[in-house]
Amino acid sequence: MKLAIVFGGESYEHEISIVSAIALKKVISCELVYIFCDKNRDFFLIPTDEINSKRFSSGEYLKDRKLSLKKGGFYTKKLFGIEQKVDFDVAINIIHGADGEDGKIASLFDFFGIKYIGPRIEGSVISYNKLFTKLYAKSLDVNVLNYEIVTQKNRKISLPLPVIIKPLRLGSSIGVGVVKEQDELEYALDVAFEYDDEVLVEPFIQNVAEYNIAGCKVGKNIIYSTIEEPQKNEFLDFEKKYMDFSRTQKVFEAKINEVIYSEIRKNFAKLYNSLFEGAIIRCDFFVIENRVFLNEINPNPGSLANYLFEEFDSVIQSLADALPKTKKIDVDYRFINEIQSAKGKA
Amino acid sequence: MKLAIVFGGESYEHEISIVSAIALKKVISCELVYIFCDKNRDFFLIPTDEINSKRFSSGEYLKDRKLSLKKGGFYTKKLFGIEQKVDFDVAINIIHGADGEDGKIASLFDFFGIKYIGPRIEGSVISYNKLFTKLYAKSLDVNVLNYEIVTQKNRKISLPLPVIIKPLRLGSSIGVGVVKEQDELEYALDVAFEYDDEVLVEPFIQNVAEYNIAGCKVGKNIIYSTIEEPQKNEFLDFEKKYMDFSRTQKVFEAKINEVIYSEIRKNFAKLYNSLFEGAIIRCDFFVIENRVFLNEINPNPGSLANYLFEEFDSVIQSLADALPKTKKIDVDYRFINEIQSAKGKA
C-alpha cells in the first residue's frame, strides 16, 4: 500500500503539521508520498527522502513539483501540458487546525473522490467548534464542564474565577489563557479574540487529572489505544504542544482503576461512533471526583497519536482497508422528463 | 455586478436545483452566469440565454464549455492549453441537498477563495443534519419537537403514533413518511433507510399550523421576508415541493397575531446569527398552542425563497456587497526557525 501524507494548510497549526507529518515517517512502514499544502493553498510533491522542516521554512519547497487537486486526485504537469496523476492508494489528512480539521480537506477529498484517513465533514465541524462538541457530547450523555460563550459585544462572564478562556474554534492551545484574578480577564479575552469572534469560558481546575485515549473503528470494532496521563505544566502551551506533535515514543498505561478505565473507553466509543468513521481521533478526558468529563476531541491528533498505539503501523493499514464508503447518488431526470412529456402532450 | 449561479450537484435534489436556478433568471436583474455541476461533478458553463431544463436531461449540456474549479475561480480551457477565468463578482450556491447544503460547496469556495452567497461550512453541517439542528436550536432556547434517532440495528420507536419519519440528512421531503398505524412502520423505516443510515422520528401533528420566513443579515441588520403560511397537503411531498422550487410569485403575509409574528422573527434572528452569515436561509416553524417550534432550517431554500421578499433583487445585491470576510492566516515559520537556530548553536 502507498499512502499520501497531506500536510501544511492555511492554519495557525501549519508548522506543527509539518512536524507531525515528518514524525509519521518513523512509524509507518509502507511507502509514503508527501503532499504539502502551503500557506497560499498551493500543493507540492515533496520527495520523501529529502523531507525536513527547513525545506518549508526556507521556501526551498517552491522548487518541488507543483500539484493540482481535482477529480480523482493530485496531478503534476508534465512537458507538453500532459498531466500525470500522483500514485497512491489512500491519503492521510494530517493538516491540523483550520483547513484540516474544520471540514475543508474532508470536503475536497469527498468531492473529488479521494480515499482518505481523517475526519469527515460532520466530525470535523463538530469537533472544531467547541460549542458544537459540548452539544454533541451532552446529547450522548457524555459529561462536559460548564461553559459559557462570550463575544466582543458581550464580554461579561458569569462563571466564578479561575476560568480558562479559549477561542471557540482553534486547537493546540493557541490563544488559550487562564484567568485567576479579575484584572487578568480583559487581556486574556483580547488574546483569545485575536483568533476568533467567539470565545469559550470554562472553569479552570488546578491539577485536574487528565487522560488521553485514541482509537478508530475498523469494521464493527473500535481499536483503542493505551490511555495516557499526559505530562503537563499548568496547561499545555503551544510550544510544549508543538514538541508533542513530533512524538513517536510509546507511552505507559495510566494508573487508573478499572471503573475509570472502562468509563473512559465507553465514553470514547460513544463519541466516536459513527461520526468519526475513517479517522483516528484522540479524546482528552478529565476525571473529577471519579466522574469522567470530555475536555476535547482531536479529530486529527498530532502525528496521529501514534505513540499511544502498540501496533500503530497495522492500525493504519487496517483502517485504510476499512474506510467508509460514500453512496453514489444516481440522477435520472425523471421529474424533468415527466414535465417535458406533459408539455409535449399539451 | 455579475453573479454566477452554481447549481446541480451529486444530490437527490439535482433536478430541483436546475428548476431553482432557472427560476432565478426571472427575479434577478443583474447579469447572470450559469455554472452547472453535473452528477459526475464536472462543471460546465451554460449559456444564460439558452438555459432550460431539457438541456440537462437530454445531456445536451455536455457540448457546453467544460470548466475546472481551482484557486480563484472557474476556468475554461482555450486553444493551445491557455486557460481563461470565468468572469463574475460573486457566486450563488444554489445546489440543494448533498454537495450544496452539506458543506462541500462552501468548503470548495472557501478553500479556493471564491466569494459566494450561501451557507458557510458550519451552517451547512448544522442544518443538513436534523439532529444537529435540534441540538443547535435547543442551545438557543428555540423550541423543537420531541424526537428520537433510530438506526438499522435499533429500529425500535418509543414515541407514540402517529409519527413522521425522516432520513437524518436529506431535504425536500425525500424518504419522508407518516406512520399512523403500527403496520405502516416497517415500510416507512425501510424507505427512509434507503437514503440514510440514521433516521429521525418526530410526533406527527395533523393540520399543524406552519409558517415560513426567510432572511439574511446585511451589516448588523437582518432583512426579514414576509411570513407565509404555506399551502399544503398532508405534508409537502417531493413532487409538490419540486414545483415549489420554481416559484417566483409573491405571497401574502400570513394571518397571525402580533405576538406570534414577533416570536417567529425573534426565533429566526437567534438561529441566523452568526452561523448563517452570507446566506439567505428559510426557517420553517410550527405554532402549537401559541408556542413557536422550529421545524427545519433550509440554508439554500428553493429559488432562494425569492417569492417571500418584497424586493428580492435589492436583497441579493446588498447581501453580495456584505459577505463575511475570512481572515488571512499568516505563517511565519517562527517555531521551525527557532529550532533550526537552536540546532545551529548546538
Describe what you observe in this structure.
2 copies of one chain form a homodimer. Chain A is α+β, with helices and mostly antiparallel strands. Chain A folds into 3 domains: 2-117, Rossmann fold; 126-144 and 206-320, ATP-grasp fold, B domain (D-amino Acid Aminotransferase, Chain A, domain 1, 2-Layer Sandwich); 148-203, 2-Layer Sandwich (Dna Ligase, domain 1). The first copy, chain A, contains 10 helices and 17 strands. In chain A, the strands form 3 sheets. Chain A has an 8-stranded mixed β-sheet with strand order 6-5-4-3-2-1-7-8, sandwiched between helices. Chain A has a 5-stranded mixed β-sheet with strand order 9-17-16-14-15, with helices on both faces. A 4-stranded antiparallel β-sheet of chain A has the order 10-13-11-12, with helices on one face. In chain A, a hairpin with a 5-residue loop joins strand 2 (31-37) and strand 3. The termini of chain A are far apart. Chains A and B meet through helix 1, helix 2, strand 4, helix 3 and helix 4 of A and helix 1, helix 2, strand 4, helix 3 and helix 4 of B.
